[in-house]
Amino acid sequence: MTNKLSMKWDLDSIFTGGSHSEELTDFIEGTEEWIEKLNQELESFGENKTLDHLIPLLETTREVRARISEISAFISCLTAQDVTDKQAKQLVGKRNQLMAQVQKLSTTFSFSLAEVTDDTWSNWTQDKKVEPIAFVLNELRDEARDKLPEEQEQLITDLAIDGYKGWGEMYNTIVGTMTVEFDGEELSVGQLENKLNSSDRSVRKRAFEKFEQAWHEKADLFTNTLNHLAGFRLQMYKHRNWEDVLQEPLNYNRMSKETLTAMWDTITKNKPAFYKYLNRKAEQFKVDKLAWYDLEAPISTEVQEVKYQDAAEMIEKQFRSFSPRMADFTNHAFKQSWIEAEDRPGKRPGGFCTSFPKSKESRIFMTYSGTASNMATLAHELGHAYHQHVMDDIDQLNQGYAMNVAETASTLAEMIVADAAVEQAETKEERLTLVEDKIQRSVAFFMNIHARFLFETRFYEARKNGFVSTEELNQLMLEAQKEAYGDQLSDYHPVFWAAKLHFHITGVPFYNFPYTFGYLFSLGIYAHAKTDQENFASFYDALLQDTGRMTVEDLAKKHLDVDLKEESFWQRAIDLCIEDVEEFIKLTDK
Ligand SMILES: [Zn+2]
């Protein structure tokens, strides 16, 4: 990559004209016609359930889904690149409306499939046009059979807009109004959060106290939003006769409870290895025990700046040693300006990758300011983009993969780059920083995410018996954190349940364990890659292509020949993380 790379993305190659794009307007109108066609075909299928009616219906479904994703991705890019773009906000409304329509049709489709008799169904699934997508169609059928009658489910969907999603929006609205005064500056809670990782302990301690205080002040409001959001969910589960709150997230992530249990049990057994790290870090900070606000603080003040161009070259080079295809794809993404990385005001915070199935392109959004963690984010998002790229060639209906496997591709990409960075470190100091960075990630996935999972599981149990007060929520969180961190910290973050957006997301319940799954699953793949680097590229592509059409247990069995319900797989993955801890201990030995 010799030419200077652009740090701004090109959206015009998808639809020209930004939020005022006429091409987009035409495309949306075209999509509305497709939705109408889908509606009619669904009606005919409902009246006359034959294979001849099903085939064209599937074809239309593919087109509608691809179009909706294309529109949705474009609008996400518009709202992210300029938070003041009013026209983009209008488009969000339009998108939500289209998505609600399609959601309704999709529910109707599931229920129609569920009505087909088992005998007929087993005949159909042998048809060469149905067989390759049988897994996802079976899922829709089973789901419908597990739910209430269609009319009631449609009613739930309608009521959920104000009675469920509304609480999530309310949460965002309140957070958006929160400001905190810190050192004479008026900061948003997000800005204050950045100060929590200051290399100056007294600064981060003060920032943390302010941060906790700010959330405590509004806690009663969030107690309301969280209780109602959870209450809606539990009522819905109760009427559907779903006893376990984990049923929905497990189904969505296509994984079994045994797998989840094996994962957490193995992590719990291995925690003492990470206590060693926490204690050593405490020694470095000259304190008895680390506080919550020390966990992500750097031990070294020596920070290396990585220029964007250098980061791009490094990522491409490291990907190449694993998979030339991944490297070529990355090069293409940089050269075609698929990445918005510029550090400028008016952009929304955070990073994401979104894909355009019709154009067969992706876009990555982030703010690159030259830190090692920015480079990691860039690699992470490119991992997501590559995953989608590999999916572009397969049936649209088999492209739906859940969060746990989505985070596998991204974490693997991040890991390849992080490991190479450690290898190339020029000084002991730099090596220490980079190794610690890796361990921080393990601690986050094994302890922080575990605390979220423990809290959420217990909160939902408590909520079944009635409203859970602010004091009880704080207490539940404190207990979960103490347990997850093995009582190794001096201070915890009891109001974390309010401060963390993820508990208030309505799109997916239990927005936590899939991260840990993705992290460890990608470590399993990484270990496999190291034993057979030569064939890695084709092995990896084949695995990614299957992520939308089987359970995670089958995926692991087929490609890695391992059983996710057994602890041995998880142990091997965690062992790799423990190696980092050992290196950290060695590097900090006096
Ligand atoms: Zn990700």
What is the spatial order of strands in the main beta sheet? 4-6-5
Could you tell me the radius of gyration in angstroms?
Answer: 24 Å
Topology as a string of helices (H) and strands (E): HHHHHHEEHHHHEHHEEEHHHHEHHHHH
What fraction of the residues are assigned to beta strands by DSSP? Answer: under 5%
Average pLDDT taken over every residue: 94
The major β-sheet equals: 3 strands, mixed
Question: What layout of secondary structure does this protein have?
Answer:
Elements: H1 22-47, H2 51-81, H3 86-115, H4 118-124, H5 134-146, H6 150-177, E1 179-182, E2 185-188, H7 189-195, H8 201-240, H9 247-252, H10 257-284, E3 290-291, H11 308-322, H12 324-335, E4 339-340, E5 352-356, E6 361-365, H13 372-391, H14 403-423, H15 428-464, H16 470-484, E7 489-491, H17 496-499, H18 513-531, H19 536-545, H20 552-560, H21 567-588
Parallel strand pairs: 3-7, 4-6
Antiparallel strand pairs: 1-2, 5-6
Helix pairs in contact: 1-2, 1-3, 2-3, 3-5, 3-6, 6-8, 7-8, 10-15, 10-21, 11-12, 11-14, 13-14, 14-15, 14-18, 15-16, 15-18, 15-21, 18-21
The structure holds zinc ion (ZN).
Write structural notes for this entry.
The protein has helices at 22-47, 51-81, 86-115, 118-124, 134-146, 150-177, 189-195, 201-240, 247-252, 257-284, 308-322, 324-335, 372-391, 403-423, 428-464, 470-484, 496-499, 513-531, 536-545, 552-560, 567-588, and strands spanning 179-182, 185-188, 290-291, 339-340, 352-356, 361-365, 489-491. The protein contains 21 helices and seven strands. Helices cover 68% and strands 4% of the residues. It is mainly α and 590 residues long. The structure holds zinc ion (ZN). Residues 380, 384, 407, 410 line the site of zinc ion.
